[in-house]
Design goal:
It is a single chain. This protein is an alpha+beta fold. Helices cover 20% and strands 34% of the residues. The chain folds into two domains: 106 residues, Gyrase A, domain 2, CATH 3.30.1360.120; 74 residues, Alpha-Beta Plaits. The longest helix has 13 residues.
Length: 208
């Protein structure tokens, strides 16, 4: 029988980006890095799918339990690191600064929506820096110009033929990107090559 100490060493949590992303400066070496890629392994994620005719009741329940409101189509409603991102008709992605912050979400919306934890099913990265928009425009299948996509905008799209959920956090601009964990390696291959010409830094988010 394997001892508890041995089991603990075997079952350590593993980043979705492990084996692909290395912390530090990469790509072009001269001058300031144009891109910062922040690996967001610490966040809690869950999908919500509303029951027929229950959207208004769901909105009230989320406001009462978490202080959240349902965003309109193509929008994100965030306060700091928490809130909801539109994912499709009657569907939203809930995000919280830690996984524990989503405890109780399913109970709060019982009978109103289904909740599926996605914390281990998605790989999340934050893209920021003065060249963030230019870099993402190489592969994102939507128009990222501020006239079309700005702070609070959200989309389900494809990036380099990989399905992704994208939302813009501020006008800097700063973006968050979520892909299926199984595509993390393929996505990182594209992302690191696209960022290389600008020089980019890789760092871990809080909690790592």
């Amino acid at each position: 029988m394997v001892g508890a100490e041995k089991l603990e060493s075997i079952w350590k949590p593993r980043s979705a980006w492990a084996g692909y992303a290395r912390a530090g400066r990469h790509g072009r070496t001269g001058g300031e890095a144009g891109i910062t890629l922040t690996l967001r392994d610490e966040v809690g994620l869950a999908t919500l799918i509303v029951a027929d005719g229950k959207e208004a009741a769901l909105d009230r329940a989320l406001e009462a339990s978490h202080g959240w409101s349902l965003p309109e189509a193509g929008r994100a409603a965030l306060a700091g690191e928490e809130g909801l991102i539109w994912s499709g008709p009657g569907q939203w992605l809930a995000i919280a600064g830690t996984r524990r912050r989503l405890d109780g979400l399913a109970d709060a919306v019982t009978g109103l929506a289904s909740v599926t934890d996605q914390s281990d099913g998605r790989a999340l990265v934050r893209v920021s820096g003065p060249c963030a928009r230019e870099m993402l425009s190489k592969g994102v299948a939507i128009d990222l110009h501020p006239r079309a996509f700005r702070a609070g905008s959200a989309a389900v799209t494809s990036i380099a033929h990989i399905g992704a959920q994208l939302w813009q956090r501020d006008d800097a601009p700063t973006y968050d990107l979520a892909v299926a964990r199984s595509f993390a390696g393929s996505f990182w291959s594209w992302l690191s090559h696209a960022a290389a010409e600008f020089g980019y830094g890789v760092e871990h988010g809080p909690g790592r």
